[in-house]
Amino acid sequence: MNPDRFFPPDPAVRALARELYEPAASLPIVSPHGHVDPRLFSEPNAAFGSPADLFIVPDHYVTRMLYSQGIPLESLLAGDHREIWKTFCANFHLFRGTPSGIWLTHELSQVFGVDEVPCASNADLLFDSVSASLFTPEFSPRRLFERFNIQALATTDAATDTLEHHQAIRTSGWNGRIIPTFRPDAVVNLDAPNWKANITTLAEVSRMDGTDYAAYIQALESRRDFFRAMGATATDHAALTPFTAELSAAEADAIFQRALKGESNADDAPRFTAHMLMEMARMSVDDGLVMQLHPGSFRNHNQGIFHKFGADKGADIPAQTEYTRNLLPLLNKFGNNPTFTLILFTLDETTYSRELAPLAGHYPALKLGPPWWFFDSLNGMARYFEQVMETAGIYNTTGFNDDTRAFCSIPARHDVWRRASANWLAGLVARHIITLTDAHDMMTELAIGLAKRAYKL
User: Given strand 366-368, what is the order of strands in its sheet?
Assistant: First the structure.
């Protein structure tokens, strides 16, 4: 891989970018939001499985691209793993110029020492080579965690999760910092699959006393306390829109009871989610957990895929999103509170300069997360820097998080962010907007400092 990859073509700016990037490249990685399975680290000798288990099956960025070209999802999620790998290699050209192509190339080259471009003719050779590495002690999840220089890694866990794998990590004596994140969507969003069954599970794990709204709130507060005791510093919330509104306890209980009886009307789910976002902000003020909000994804757009394979199979599509009016109740009540932090993400880039940067540039509690999901890319990062930073400044943002299920992609994703940050800062230095000393300080902040502070790590 070219050491100057992704840097600007102008020699003078490229030299500045290189100078800024080089000291930041060796900084530890803080991964404050992601979806890596904690069971990978719960046993000293745990293994990733096959190359297909590592690179393809859990990574919806990979499977969605292959599916978009007519490759059946069945052939990518189940069956002989060598055949899955061969399909992946034969179609590796599909990832040319994409973020996935960048990450995959980095993983193969920097982690596994594979410098051949995958294709049909070398698929078996690469499968055997990567497999041989995966079954050595040096490639266990714990050893790679240490090799990647990860300082902290947060997983995302359902509110009803017993966190048994996190408990196993803690009792094992290993000092890698793996922490949970409280994700209550399955018991908060009334239209979530199996919502009523999830409430039953919530009652069991929290010893919920009663089936009314007040008991439900107490159960959620109890679970948050448990997550905090297990090291959690943040919560995570998904909603189609960032609509917030406050209901009375009687109104909330009436909606809750209708849902338990299967009698919800069309307005109940959005109103209850809007109210529960207010409640989650209130709880964060009380217990100090950082609140993350990820609106704007039309989940499971491909109904056939959802019904056959379930969620998170690459069929979530960005939706137009409004923030200024939707967040008004929440920010007016909690946005000035010095003990509250709300980290906001978007899939609607048109809101960067119009709404999000001005909001983050005013409310002390609000910070902007990095370019997310479809925009976790060189171009997406460049647009983010250009549209957000002039109004919000970097200190109202949170650095980078990789938001990945694919563990070995973590260093690749952080490397792209650090190079993109160096590009942006080098341009500011070249135009004499900031000094080189400022740029070095800002580079460290963008690489690790902002994330550590925002997520209380």
Answer: 157-158, 182-183, 234-239, 290-295, 342-344, 366-368
Q: Which of 140, 152, 161, 193 minimizes the C-alpha distance to 32?
A: 152
CB 407 within 8 A of CB 141: yes
For the domain 48-139, what is the CATH code? Answer: 1.10.2020.10
Which ranges constitute the DSSP H helices of 1-78?
11-25, 51-55, 60-68, 74-77
Dihedral sign, CA of 202, 207, 212, 213?
Answer: negative
Each residue's pLDDT tens digit, 179-198: 999 999 999 999 999 999 99
Domain boundaries, the chain: 11-47+141-454, 48-139
What angle (nearest 5°) sits at the alpha carbon of residue 251, between those of residues 246 and 256? Answer: 105
74 CB-contact burial (10 Å; exposed 0-12 / middle 13-18 / buried 19+): exposed
Q: What is the helix, strand, coil percentage profile of the chain, to 5?
A: 55, 10, 35
Tell me the sheet residues that pair with 292.
Answer: 236, 343
Whose tokens are 């299920």? That residue is: 405
Residue 210's pLDDT band, with cuts at 50, 70 and 90, is: confident
Domain covering 11-47+141-454 in this structure, CATH number: 3.20.20.140
Q: At what angle do helices 249-260 and 195-206 cross, to 10 degrees?
A: 110
Query: Which residues are within 8 A (CB) of 456 and not within 5 positions of it... i.e. 6 or more apart?
Result: 233, 234, 288, 290
Predicted TM-score (pTM) of this structure? 0.96
DSSP secondary structure of 190-236: TTSTTHHHHHHHHHHHHT--SSSHHHHHHHHHHHHHHHHHTT--EEE
Question: pLDDT tens digits for 318-360?
Answer: 999 999 999 999 999 999 999 999 999 999 999 999 999 999 9
User: From the CA atom positions of the chain, what is the Rg in Å?
Assistant: 22
pLDDT digits (tens, 9 = 90+) for 134-162: 999 999 999 999 999 999 999 999 999 99
Amino acid identity of 244?
T
How would you classify residue 97: left for phi > 0, otherwise alpha for psi between -120 and 50, otherwise beta? left
pLDDT by residue (tens digit) across 432-451?
999 999 999 999 999 999 99
Minimal CA–CA distance to 354: which of 388, 399, 382? 388
Answer for the pair 308, 281: CB distance below 8 angstroms, yes or no: no
Using the structure block, give the residue that is written with the tokens 């809750």: 256
**Structure token digits, residue 9:** 């073509």
Beta carbons within 8 Å of 231's beta carbon, 6+ residues apart: 166, 170, 177, 179, 180
Residue 365 per-residue DSSP state? T
CB 337 within 8 A of CB 254: no
